[in-house]
Write a structure and sequence with these properties.
Elements: H1 2-18, E1 31-32, E2 41-46, E3 54-59, H2 67-73, E4 78-79, E5 91-92, E6 102-104, E7 107-110, E8 122-129, E9 136-137, E10 152-159, E11 199-200, E12 203-204, H3 205-241
Parallel strand pairs: 2-10
Antiparallel strand pairs: 1-3, 2-3, 4-5, 6-7, 8-9, 8-10, 11-12
Amino acid sequence: MKRRSAVLASVAGLIVAIAPDAHAIDRTKGYPGFCKDDNGVTVVVDFQQLGGTTIVRCNPATSRGTGLDALKGAGFQVEGNQRFGESLICRVENRPSATETIPITGRNDYREPCADMPPAGAYWSYFHSGNNCGWEVSQSGPKDRDFVRGGFEGWSFSLNAKADSNTTPRIAPVRPGTENRPCDVVTSTKPDPKQNVEFTGGEKTEAIKQKSSDFAPWAAGAVVLVLAVAGFLVARRRKQKS
């Protein structure tokens, strides 16, 4: 019996030794499941081929914040890397851990040190979506993009995928009870003085329209004046010839 207990203890110790370290969700932040209204942002973390489940949590924020704020505010533990800090998320809930091997094509024994850019075959891909819309790959990092209240932030581990074929989170960005609502089309980047303004040729559309309306009256008058002068000169020349 003692020998059996010793064997079981050894096995348990071995499992602990080889299993990736786990970070516990910070349950003092956010709450599990989808956000209940348009005020918060729902965060979906899908470990994909790393194994484990897909976690959905709400950050009930009512004020502006970045994608990084959304992730942390929902209670997820994150780690950046040594070169880029938290502008580039290396681990979520300590996955992939520094001790687990990731089967990248051609590098089956790879372990993520979080020192520099992750390999193209293994990294956390970042998505966003309005409610009832499809997932979109973010063109900005989590510190350079604001989350959209009522929308979704998604993180999905990309393994041996191409940049244009990253696997989206396996949870649809649809809050329960809002399935019949139209897609909340939103595009949010970090606010600046030009936020949410259409641009044409580097200028605000509204400014261009205003310029056009201001131009019309005096431009028309100028054209009439030019034509009148031209007519006068032509008539005068004809008179001189005659």
